[in-house]
Design brief:
This protein is of the alpha+beta class. Helices cover 38% and strands 8% of the residues. It is built from 10 helices and 7 strands. The longest helix has 24 residues. The protein is globular, with a radius of gyration of 19 Å. One of its GO terms (cellular component) is cytoplasm.
């Protein structure tokens, strides 16, 4: 775990000393777009872009899901890092299920970041959307990448499904905001807290949000009414990791997702959505967290459970809208 400072790799854990033991996530550095207008830096083209992901990572997972749902698998290839993120950060290897770096055969993801900008100061995170032609990072913020995938390649793929429809944007943005702070990032705030009070504060906010989701999902099938939107996919990647990792490793253990009938059924429905289960790799997920965060789990022992059958009926079609 570390970061690049002026293009030099430094092995450093997150510093929580300045803010009372609280984990604060840094903003992503590369925020480019894909556009079809004449002279655009990154026009939508088949085979031109490459996605770097970790199967372990909930943020990268969003990008993998939208790539799958939007018919982009044949247009945008993927390199998968090793699930272990140790002193050199994300690395490439022949760990089962990882691919190595298909473009440059680098050993470490930080080499890709310095190829994009030799003196960059940044955390070295996944996902990364890479432009093979300009040899640069288009974007390394998952919230942007899923919107790029949602709409910017439609002319190429002919796929018109819209997970961020104009009429619902305000509502989607609103729920995204709550889900991001309380749940997506909330589990990290609990898990990476280094004081009791910072941990407890994060866990309380997290479970209040899950409790209110349970109520919301008792009368509506998806987060924003009748149709699946990006808000659901953004929540899903945290929910699917919850009982396997966040409950134990990040001490988010007031309840499991399996204890919430509506949230659990909803999570199973999304898991069973065509194309999605193949993007969920529990071996990488559990290995990454339990093996990489040695300050939380110094023995690096990876738990065996939980045993859950996510293919059992979700019964979400029975939800009565009120
Ligand atoms: N805001 C970014 C966050 C991505 C992120 O933090 N990814 C984690 C993996 S789950 C990572 O690569 N962490 C490495 C680090 O922070 O050094 C996004 O949503 O794309």
């Amino acid at each position: 775990m570390g970061l690049l400072v002026d293009g030099i790799w430094q092995d450093k854990w997150y510093d929580t000393s300045e803010n009372g033991g609280k984990f604060e996530r840094q903003a992503s550095k590369f925020r480019g777009t894909i556009g079809g207008e004449a002279g655009a830096e990154h026009p939508p083209e088949s085979g031109r872009y490459h996605l770097y992901v970790a199967y372990a990572c909930p943020w990268a997972h969003r990008a993998l899901i939208l790539r799958q749902l939007k018919g982009l698998t044949e247009h945008i290839d993927v390199s998968v890092v090793n699930p272990d993120m140790l002193g050199d950060g994300w690395s490439f290897s022949d760990y089962p299920g990882s691919t190595g770096d298909k473009l440059y055969h680098y050993d470490y993801l930080h080499q890709l970041y310095t190829k994009a900008k030799h003196d960059v100061t940044t955390r070295v995170t996944v996902p990364v959307l890479w432009d093979k032609q300009t040899q640069s990072i288009v974007n390394n913020e998952s919230a942007d990448i899923i919107r790029i995938f949602n709409s910017d390649f439609n002319a190429l793929t002919g796929d018109k499904q819209d997970f961020y429809p104009a009429a619902l944007r305000e509502e989607i943005d609103d729920i995204n905001n709550t889900v991001y702070h309380a749940i997506n990032n909330g589990v990290y705030k609990a898990g990476f807290a280094t004081t009791q009070s910072a941990y407890e504060e994060a866990v309380e906010v997290l479970f209040e949000a899950l409790d209110s989701l349970e109520t919301r999902l008792s009368t509506q099938r998806y987060l924003v009414g009748h149709q699946i939107t990006e808000a659901d996919w953004r929540l899903f990647t945290t929910l699917i990791r919850f009982d396997a990792v966040y409950h134990g490793h990040f001490k988010c253990n007031i309840r499991q997702i399996a204890d919430y009938p509506n949230v659990y059924g909803y999570m199973k429905e999304l898991y069973q959505y065509p194309g999605v289960a193949s993007t969920v790799k529990f071996d990488h997920i559990k290995r990454h967290y339990y093996y990489s965060h040695t300050m939380i789990n110094p023995t690096q022992v990876v738990p065996v459970g939980p045993k859950q059958d996510l293919m059992t009926p979700h019964n979400r079609e029975k939800i009565k809208y009120v």
